[in-house]
Amino acid sequence: MYMPQIHYSVAAPMSNYHMPSVAMQPSQQHYCNTSFSAAQSNYSTITHSLTDFTPTQFLENPIFSPQHFITKPTRFIGKADEIKEFITEAFEKTTNHALQSNIEITICNKEEVKKAHERFNGIWSDGIQGFCINRHGKGISHIFVKQDELAHIMLTIGHEIGHAQSPPLRDIVEEEAKAFAFSMAFMNTIREHNIAGLGSALVEHLPAKNGIHNVGFNLVADKVRCGMSPIEVFMDFVQKGLNKTNTEGLYGLL
Predict the structure, then answer these.
(1) Ramachandran angles phi, psi of 165, nearest 5°
(2) Could you tell me the pTM of the whole model?
């Protein structure tokens, strides 16, 4: 029996943003109309209780906020079908292979995200921007993201896909770093290829470590500063997780 764990990322306020300092190297029927996947979801298969979530845990968990990497407003996106081609293009150009059919992505309004989150026994907070049920190798992984501006959604999805690419690591910081590394590679691809016209909407450099209070980000930033590319950092964490017994995980962005 799986025992899912909740792993959250908490958004830092914009006042904490500092100038960049280093260059980055190169379903239930209710949701079906706003999601895309090669396989149908089956929420009834996941009925296990999640670990309790308290304000103390909330503050201690790693931080991820797309706003630190976005330079200007972009258009509003209401459903996944509007950006399916952008997601698949960014993924394929980042990884050199097609997006797996066992990952389902849904974009919906706040109330629908809340319902999906609570269906998985998650404890809701209004700050949640999206979350991922990572069932890599054990079934369909589900990603839910709140309706938002295009740049925010693309980076949020990139982060959550990073979780779903491999079984979750037992160390919450390393798991967050894994997703952060993939989101950085995903962002680089979007910017370099001007996918969805977002080339000028994303930063070209990693923000300063004191601007993003995220231990997962710090792990990635340190490796990038030592010469690794974000995708190499990601693969390093994936390799580290191989041959280990991991639990199904619920990961979210706040």
Answers:
(1) -75, -20
(2) 0.76
Cα separation, 65 vs 82, whole angstroms: 23
CB 168 within 8 A of CB 248: yes
Total number of residues shown for the chain? 254
* Gap between the Cα atoms of 177 and 32, Å rounded: 31
Question: Which tokens hold the place of 239?
Answer: 């390799």
Q: What is the pLDDT of residues 173-228, one digit of tens each?
A: 898 899 999 999 999 999 999 999 999 999 987 665 544 446 788 889 899 989 99
User: What residue segments make up the domains of the chain, in order of their start?
Assistant: 27-37+63-242
Angle among Cα 72, 74, 80 to the nearest 5 degrees reads 140
CA–CA dist 151, 129 (Å, integer): 13
Residue with tokens 């959550």: 160
